[in-house]
Amino acid sequence: MIKNLKSFLIKVPRYNYDAKLARRAEITNLMILLSSFIVGIDLINSLYYNYLTISYMEILFLIMATITFILFKYKLSVQTASNLIVGGIAFLSLVSLSVEGFGKESAIFWTATLPLYFFFFLDVKSGLKWTLLTEIVLIFTFLNTIFKFYNPIFSSDLLIQLILGFAGLSYLFYHYEHSRLTQELALEKALKHKDILNQEVHHRVKNNLQFIVALLSMQAIHENNSDKYNVAINRIISLSHLHNILYDTEDMHNISTKDYFSKIANTLVSTSIYNINLHIGVNVNISISHNLFCGLLLNELITNSIKHSFKNSGGNIYINLKKDTNKYILSIKDDGISYNKNNSKSSFGTVLIDILVYDQLKGELIYKNNTHTIIFKDEI
Fold first, then answer.
1. Does 120 or 372 have the greater pLDDT score?
2. What does 145-201 look like in DSSP terms, one character per residue?
3. Is residue 104 scored above 90 in pLDDT?
4. Domain ranges of the chain
5. What is the DSSP code (8-state) at residue 99?
6. Would you say domain 254-377 falls under CATH 3.30.565.10?
7. Which residues contact 371 (CB under 8 A, 6 or more apart)?
């Protein structure tokens, strides 16, 4: 219940699409609630001591704050709501300086703290405007009390101290904001430069991989031996898929393993003359290095299935990856005919599979009933 009440009072759901705006909206709501609470307590005190002018002003502020709180949930912008509340606080503080008999120490204290409200709840530009306006009103109030009562409501020394204090705070916040904006611009420029470099590297790597594939394809045509070179071409394409996914993803440490496996498997199956159906059950993501080695394994094992298991017929290939405590279990299975692995023990593909499983993944390989099961640890 308390959590729901807090959510209702502070959060503004229509700003949930932007984390920064949502935080500003929550701060604005807090400012409305806290200022209303403080003014409400002071209203009781003003009514008790019969300060009617201040009481009327505080009642008007509470009405305005209530309307702002309600409208802010549905229509008012963060800037408008903040300006209304900060403006109301400034108005109350400055009016209290002109009310005869009201506690001047309290009024001067709240007036002196106004710039803190301006700069904390508003942006620096708005804070500077509000501080300058407050200084003008302070001077006007000082002169008005001299002409009206022939006795200043506060000394000229205090006025000078307030104005100098406001000016000093304004300079500090302006200097801070200027430094922050300069750093942000420099960072933005550096990030833009980094993005350009990343794009250039990506295009160079992509073009180089395509160039190697083109060279191998030309060599295959020249020697009239496509089978020999297609295996190497598919290995390079599997690397290219990982490179493209890495470039397109925002989080390089959390790439979609399912998408990567799907691209490799679909590329291999699309080149087959048989009607092969893919069944991919991957519901976990693994690291970049795991993806790289598993992608190459996938390439070799699916190639073997297409080459040896599906002769003059189609079938199904099942790819599954799951996590069991601190281990991953990758299985590649087909429903084609069984083939004797001993016949290909000395082939480069078999040697590569052993290197990837035992040397790179530090895992183990089990082959049974047309199913290759690779078990490897969470960390290499």
1. 372
2. HHHHHSS-SS-HHHHHHHHHHHHHHHHHHHHHHHHHHHHHHHHHHHHHHHHHHHHHH
3. no
4. 2-183, 254-377
5. S
6. yes
7. 331, 332, 333
